[in-house]
Amino acid sequence: MTVFSERKTDRAEVLVKDLCFAYPQQPSVLQGVSFAIQPGDRVALLGPTGSGKSTLLEQLIGLKLPTAGEVWIGGMRVEPRTLPQIRRRLGFCFQDANDQLFMPTILEDVMFGPLNYGMPIAQAKNQARDLLARFGLDVYEARSAHELSGGQKRLVALAAVLALEPAILILDEPTTGLDPRWRRSLARVLGELPTQAIVIASHDLHWIRQTTDRALVLYGGQIREDCSTERLLGDRSLLESYDLPLDY
Ligand SMILES: Nc1ncnc2c1ncn2[C@@H]1O[C@H](COP(=O)(O)OP(=O)(O)OP(=O)(O)O)[C@@H](O)[C@H]1O
Ligand SMILES: [Mg+2]
Questions:
Q1: pLDDT level of residue 123 (50, 70, 90 thresholds)
Q2: Which candidate, 66, 53, 39, places its Cα nearest to that of 77?
Q3: Ligand 1: residues within 6 Å at CB?
Q4: pTM for the whole structure
């Protein structure tokens, strides 16, 4: 099924065309993935464990490069030459927050990106404090990420990404380790962002319903469904057919 050809693609924020990817000496994980994400889209990327969601998202930011096919972000093809511009446009929160927090304190973690792009130190500090406060973490600003809980680390990683005001936000399993109160807060924060497009890989189907309006299902190496989140989550047998039961 080519979802790609049915959608308007000329001003797509994200365009993925016939993408294939295999890890060395492994069977291919992605076998012709195509989709386009338009400004304003809030998209859930669903699929069972091991279906390739993280692998696909990492291609959007050029951490992995396809064995065949193309990825375009904001009209730029993802290739080694364009990575600095791509990474300015696209904010990425890893499935494992430990991969992106490395400074002595979380305040410095959140200041790191803006300082790198030339923001004055006082402004970067104020902005970092505001972002940490939004997630109730300002009291921990002098701690290192290693001294926080898993859920708190995840929120710091998100604050660090939001500090760069990305046009496109990619979140890989953002609710892991968050209690219901923080899941609700995170949904509210995401709902208020001016970000052009958001893509969220998640197994948290109820939360996804609150935060996205479109759902892609990655299954068997391809995008097998592209429909409204409401329609997908309203169809239990369709979900079951992709090994995505609502309850267990
Ligand atoms: N570095 C790697 N080397 C070899 N195989 C890998 C590597 N990383 C992932 N894989 C394999 O690629 C497949 C897809 O993994 P991926 O992490 O993209 O899945 P996922 O859909 O994100 O899963 P989850 O829901 O558990 O996060 C899996 O079969 C996995 O074992
Ligand atoms: Mg994953």
A1: very high
A2: 66
A3: 23, 26, 29, 47, 49-55, 95
A4: 0.92
